[in-house]
Structure of Azurin:
Amino acid sequence: MMEKHMKKRFHTLMPLLLLLLWSCSPPEADGNLNVNDMASDSATAASAPLNEDQDTTLQKIQELSLHALGNSLDEIKFSKDTLEVKAGALVKLTFVNEGVDMPMVHNVVFTAPGKFKQVALAGDKVGASGGYVPENDLVVASSPIALPGQTVEMEFTAPTAPGSYDFVCTYPSHWSKMNGVLIVK
Ligand SMILES: [Cu+2]
């Protein structure tokens, strides 16, 4: 008896609920309310990023490696002055910090052409909590901080516009010794 009553209430509430849901749909929705779609929302949301990345998953990853050398402010330098990537390539960079002592903290930040110093000085102000990386359009990509002896990895999409970009360590006062050119072809 009780169950029957509940069921009846549910049926009378259902059209109202559907109407509410329909009226809440965003303007870009096609207006067709499909209960099945709504039930599988979580599944489609999880697979959506994969669809967006479809081009890059088919693309071969370009692997690069870079070391930070030296164990004093006078010695520090990157192992390479120049890195080269294909325009728009998916790049995986392995960054090895060969420093031993604590002040030898490094990162690799790729910047717009000619902007390594400007980005490094802005990164200095950001401080350790922000990984010494400023949030602005001059930054193409940045690695995590690599402590002495640590190896970090980063993945990024190379700029689509060919040119000579910069890379730099934005740890305070390292930029003048630790910078190089990213050639995008
Ligand atoms: Cu450094």
User: Anything to note?
Assistant: Confidence is low (pLDDT under 50) at residues 10-49. The helical segments are 2-24, 35-39, 41-52, 54-58, 116-126. Residues 76, 106, 169, 171, 174, 178 surround copper (II) ion (CB under 6 Å). Residues 2-24 form the longest helix (23 residues).
